[in-house]
Amino acid sequence: MENLGVIKSQTESANNYLGISRRGKHKIFIGMCPGVGKTYRMLEEGRRLKQEGLDVVIGLLETHGRQETQERATGLELIPRKVLSWQGKTFTEMDVEAIIERNPQLALIDELAHTNVPGSEREKRYQDVEVILQAGIDVYSTVNIQHLESLNDVVFKISGVVVRERVPDRLLDEADEVVVVDVTPETLQQRLKEGKIYAPEKIDQALQNFFQRQTLTLLRELSLREIADSVEEDVREMQQDYCNIQERVLVCISTYPNSVQLLRRGGRIAHYMNARLYVLFVADPNRFLSKSESLYIETCERLCQELPGEFIRIESVDIVGTIAQVVQEKHITQIVIGESRRSRWQTLLRGSVSQKLMGKLATVDLHIIANTP
Questions:
Q1: What is the percent of the chain where pLDDT is above 90?
Q2: Which residues on adjacent β-strands are paired with residue 312?
Q3: For residues 330-355, average pLDDT
Q4: Where is each Signal transduction histidine kinase osmosensitive K+ channel sensor N-terminal domain found (predicted)?
Q5: What is the band of 80 on the pLDDT scale with cuts at 50, 70, 90?
Q6: Same structural domain for residues 83 and 166?
Q7: DSSP labels for 168-216?
């Protein structure tokens, strides 16, 4: 809360000083890992805009000794860094106040997830960027997918690396534009071998660890999916009659013994479609589950997590209405449900859940799985 207060106070001061009320626009260049060309692409666009007459400066640049990146910065004004002392050592950080005083139309700022030297006015560089945006200056910035807070555990499972510097996911949501800078794992490995990413003494170690082909492939998929999901959310907000781009499978389970088989079948369908998986259990609030039934539902929940999927439990007497509500909230495209256990006479009198769903959810595909002993 203190950091937010400091940011608000500083941004208000900047706005008062400059007489600006418009918040700057933020464009983020994101990639699967170092070396894909995020900084190069940012500088390239900055140079193009400068040639078109825009006032562009480099607020902070990290070339990591990459010659091609350094060459792309040629001709762009560079704001000098601020010199700071900490524990008897000298460090440099981005000079936010100097950028605001210079007041360009666009500032290029590298490595959004960077942690500032202790004693800096703000802890993280992304907080510095927010101050600059509030001052009415547009910002282009760069970040790797592994720095997103919500993906930290996933990245660790993929790479075995604990990422210490992280940024909140809201930065992508709040950005005016997000650009994925993408290359194939093979291209990235070749760049590494040619010495375009790390110094020669670090190449072999990188190839054996973070830059293994399998790791790069999974990180690439992670970054593309993350942005695809973000784009899908934007489309959903713009359109009332939303058309799902990604399939979403909802498996409706009950306390019947065939629910585990039903869940596995739904998991296979989701896997074949490369779809998100959701599992729904509608619990009757007027009925207590027996011990065996409770254990059964817990088994289904554990299996859902392993597949993996999202388990949803809702108390309601209206099964069809609850399913329809979840379908709408989660933008479900496929429903997997077990065959009705009612007798033919009961079905004629009352109708089955599947029949009611077909009448209520005409645009959703319904998979009715036969009961097996």
A1: 41
A2: 280
A3: 66
A4: 22-231
A5: very high
A6: yes
A7: -THHHHH-SEEEE----HHHHHHHHHTTSSS-HHHHHHHHHTTT-HHHH
Tell me what pLDDT residue 352 has.
65
Lowest mean pLDDT among 49-58, 92-101, 183-192, 344-353: 344-353
What is the C-alpha separation between 152 and 164, in angstroms, rounded?
9
Residues 357, 320 contacting (CB under 8 angstroms): yes
> Edge-to-edge strands of the sheet including 334-338?
310-315, 276-283, 248-253, 334-338, 365-369
What's the number of domains the chain is made of?
2
Token pair in block for residue 218? 């999974």
Last residue in a domain, options 238, 271, 289:
238
Structure tokens of 124? 């993280």
Q: What is the CATH number of the domain that holds 265?
A: 3.40.50.620
**Residues 213 and 265 occupy one common structural domain:** no
**Domain ends where: 171, 203, 238?**
238
| Residue-by-residue DSSP string for 44-60 | HHHHHHHHTT--EEEEE
Q: Judge whether 243 lies within some domain.
A: no
Q: Are residues 155 and 204 in the same domain?
A: yes
Using the structure block, give the residue that is written with the tokens 């939303």: 242
Instruction: Quote the mean pLDDT of the chain.
Output: 83
Q: List Cα–Cα distances, 15 to 11, 158, 174, in angstroms.
A: 6, 43, 20
Distance of alpha carbon 273 from the chain centroid: 21
Domain shared by 97 and 192, yes or no: yes
- pLDDT tens-digit map of 181-221: 988 889 888 888 888 887 788 888 888 777 888 888 888 88
Same domain, 73 and 124: yes
Residue 284, in any domain of the structure: yes
What range does the domain containing 304 cover? 248-369
Residue 228: pLDDT over 90: no
Model confidence, pTM = 0.60
Side chain identity at residue 339, one-letter code: E
Closest CA to 224 of 28, 27, 32: 32
246/178 Cα distance (integer angstroms): 19
Rounded average pLDDT over 241-249? 69
13, part of any domain: yes
